């Protein structure tokens, strides 16, 4: 289990609402299997769906590629 799935699993276990973004359908499926609440394709406009959400923590495994989309 890689560090992102490990973190996702533990966040779900403590009751956190977890959103996962990815271009990869298999990664999104696995995140859903581990209990993620939102599964969002990064090649679509996911910012509109999440605009009213508040985040306590963001785990980023890819770096600045998504920074411009997060306000």
UniProtKB/TrEMBL annotation:
UniProt protein name: Zinc-binding dehydrogenase
Pfam families xref list? ADH_zinc_N (PF00107)
Family matches, as InterPro entries: ADH-like_C, NAD(P)-bd_dom_sf
Residue intervals of the Alcohol dehydrogenase-like C-terminal domain: 13-67
Q: Which SUPFAM superfamilies match?
A: NAD(P)-binding Rossmann-fold domains
Q: Which domain of life is it from?
A: Bacteria
| Organism of origin | Oceanobacillus aidingensis
